[in-house]
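[STRUCTURE TOKENS]
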Amino acid sequence: MIPDVFIPGALDLDGDEREWVPQAEGVWFKPLVLCVSQGYYVNLLRVRNSGVLSRHRHAGPVHAITLRGRWRYLEHDWEAVPLSYAFEPAGETHTLVVPDDVEEMITLFHVTGGYVYVDPQGNAMGYEDVFTKLATARAYHATSGLGEDHIMKVVR
């Protein structure tokens, strides 16, 4: 049985900037739970860039709750706005876009399994899962002033 996880202020979107791990230019994530034994993670994704963020295919299901800003997938006719929920089934490929007039988008994602970044023809360009998230977060926090062990939400 995995232990309980409790994170006071987990949804403090304007707290310590060092909590946000750089992922790409204008893109950060704030890990909440990194469960290596069950292959999932929960994190906040913050985007301060507009336009296409990524095209990717999920190996497992994803749950998303938008907290700030707006975003959408080119392949769907809905737009995620604050307090909206989206479910993404395993195997789906979609292209995440943040509209030009959005200064900041923050969404809570619960991702099971990994996902593959793909080009428009579906060719693999990169991969992400709980292990890559953990490695990125640990490397960043080793230099952030918070310490590598700051990521204490790792569930084994």
In short: The two ends are 10 Å apart (CA to CA).
